[in-house]
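Appendix B, Record 12. Input sequence as logged:
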Amino acid sequence: MALIEWLLNNIFVVFILAAFVSWVGKRMKAGEETIERKQQQEKQQEQEQKSPVVMAEVKPRTRRSMKKEQEQMIAPQQAEEQRVERRKLPKHPLVQGVIFSEVLGPPRAKRPFGRK
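Logged structural output:
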């Protein structure tokens, strides 16, 4: 019970100790990983020295890569269709007038909001 009271009274010290323990654990783990990497590199170098095999990189064709290729082919067609649709304006002169007044008029930021 006295230990719990001491921990609750000195919570700042508990946080510092927890951070230190966490830091030490991360450093030890990083050290182990570097040792494993060195061992793997040594094994690879030994294998390369034993059998010099020329390996050609082959990019595997997955569904994602095939889908991206198809999208790249379809994208120009869609862009062309969108350009054609943008050029078309409504035929009604009243609608055209409203559109052109918004486009050619003063910026919205300079017009009053309309609080009356």
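The CA atoms of residues 61 and 110 lie 55 Å apart.
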